[in-house]
């Protein structure tokens, strides 16, 4: 596996992190760069999810900036509705990202099994997601890849947000940042325009629509097809589209999030707009944050993932990368994190100046212009 004790910036020489400090149980997921393992840290006996990412694939896919950006952002944030980073380290061949273990699986897996969700289930999922988004947005961070695959359940059925590879600290000129998942990307992002936190709320609208009807509002075989569909017609739900048991408030909520023009979209003026909508008026946000509310959807007790998908190998070709080359390894300088170190605690000097605790808020007028 190569040398797994590479020196990092901010590295404490008394602390060594390596693959050998974990017991690998079995893979529970698969991403673009490697597998996600269920592991146990030998020292504290805690279970975690570990992303093992091949450096050669990362470089071949031109994704070094993405994985390094994710580690930097995760070091800045900590929240009960986000899958938090606990450790990060590397060896010659791989990067390792150790995260909170979410045994409930992602909502794409559960949507595939259930086809749809009820209104109560959807409202609960969205409320959890909103808690994470509010925290990010008041801290000037746009996630930019909200989709069911990135919404994972804990054992109690609470949703947490994950995958910060294309998340960004907001900048006024960001029209060049067009990464995302077609079908969930806001029109302003897919059309290469400057965008704000409202882009995340468009994706929330797509998710509610999908959970309600079992399909997305804008579909196509290619990114261009989806872009053309968005530009061709403003999707709006009608009363006749609503499944039995769903409310008019849910219809209004979805339609206001799916507005193509961001200035007309619910959430453009900030998270409080979303929170104040009639569909969420009965949410007890205090109980939700304390996680004392019973979830209307409880995943089964064992791990929830598609074993066939996890076992599949990649079919694409990757470049041959010389991992012994110093300049290659220098691309990953700084890929280290240990949540137990005082210098790596969120809200320390290593974080953004505006970092807040989960129960704080700020004026985000700049973000919504």
Overall description:
With 369 residues, this protein is of the alpha+beta class. A 6-stranded antiparallel β-sheet has the order 1-2-3-5-4-11. A 3-stranded antiparallel β-sheet has the order 6-8-9. The chain has 12 helices and 11 strands. The protein has 2 domains: 19-102 and 305-345 and 355-368, Phosphorylase Kinase, domain 1 (2-Layer Sandwich), CATH 3.30.200; 105-290, Orthogonal Bundle (Transferase(Phosphotransferase), domain 1), CATH 1.10.510. Helix 4 packs antiparallel against helix 6 (198-213). It has helices spanning 55-60, 64-76, 107-114, 119-138, 187-190, 198-213, 223-232, 248-257, 271-275, 285-290, 307-311, 326-330, and strands at 22-30, 34-41, 47-54, 85-90, 94-100, 105-106, 141-142, 151-153, 159-161, 168-169, 337-338. It is globular. The protein is 29% helix and 14% strand. This is non-specific serine/threonine protein kinase. Residues 22-280 form the Protein kinase domain. One of its GO terms (biological process) is intracellular signal transduction. Keywords: ATP-binding, Kinase, Nucleotide-binding, Serine/threonine-protein kinase, Transferase.
Adjacency order of strands in the biggest sheet? 1-2-3-5-4-11
Give the CATH architecture of the largest domain: Orthogonal Bundle
CATH superfamily of the largest domain: Transferase(Phosphotransferase) domain 1
- Number of helical segments? 12
Enter the CATH topology name of the largest domain.
Transferase(Phosphotransferase), domain 1
CATH domain class name of the largest domain: Mainly Alpha
Given the helix and strand composition, which structural class is it?
alpha+beta
Keywords: ATP-binding, Kinase, Nucleotide-binding, Serine/threonine-protein kinase, Transferase
EC number: 2.7.11.1
Pfam family, one: Pkinase
GO molecular function: ATP binding; protein serine/threonine kinase activity
């Amino acid at each position: 596996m190569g040398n797994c004790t590479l020196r990092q910036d901010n590295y404490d020489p008394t602390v060594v992190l390596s693959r050998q400090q974990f017991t690998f149980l079995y893979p529970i997921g698969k991403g673009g760069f490697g597998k996600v393992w269920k592991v146990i840290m030998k020292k504290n006996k805690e279970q975690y999810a570990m992303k093992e990412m091949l450096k050669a694939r990362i470089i071949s896919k031109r994704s070094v900036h993405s994985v390094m950006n994710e580690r930097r952002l995760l070091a800045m944030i900590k929240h009960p509705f986000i899958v938090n980073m606990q450790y990060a380290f590397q060896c010659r061949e791989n990067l390792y990202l150790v995260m909170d273990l979410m045994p409930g699986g992602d909502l794409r897996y559960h949507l595939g099994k259930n086809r749809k969700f009820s209104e109560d289930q959807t409202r609960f999922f969205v409320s959890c997601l909103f808690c994470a988004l509010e925290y990010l947005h008041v801290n000037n961070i746009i996630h930019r890849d909200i989709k069911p695959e990135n919404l994972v359940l804990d054992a109690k059925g609470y949703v947490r947000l994950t995958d910060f590879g294309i998340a960004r600290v907001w900048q006024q000129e960001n029209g060049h940042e067009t990464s995302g998942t077609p079908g969930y990307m806001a029109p302003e992002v897919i059309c290469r325009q400057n965008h704000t936190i409202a882009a995340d709320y468009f994706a929330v609208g797509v998710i509610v629509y999908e959970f309600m009807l079992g399909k997305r509002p804008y579909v196509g075989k290619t990114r261009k097809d989806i872009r053309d569909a968005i530009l061709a017609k403003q999707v709006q739900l009608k009363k006749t589209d609503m499944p039995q048991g769903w409310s008019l408030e849910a219809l209004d909520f979805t339609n206001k999030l799916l507005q193509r023009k961001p200035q007309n979209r619910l959430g453009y003026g900030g998270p409080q707009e979303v929170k104040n909508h009639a569909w969420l008026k009965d949410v007890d946000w205090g109980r939700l944050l304390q996680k004392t509310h019973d979830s209307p959807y409880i995943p089964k007790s064992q791990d929830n993932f598609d074993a066939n998908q996890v076992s599949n190998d990649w079919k694409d070709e990757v470049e041959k990368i010389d991992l012994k080359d110093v300049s290659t390894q220098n691309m990953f300088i700084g890929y280290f994190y240990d949540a137990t170190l005082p210098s790596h605690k969120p809200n320390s000097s290593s974080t953004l100046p505006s970092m807040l605790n989960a129960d704080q808020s700020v004026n985000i007028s700049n973000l919504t212009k």
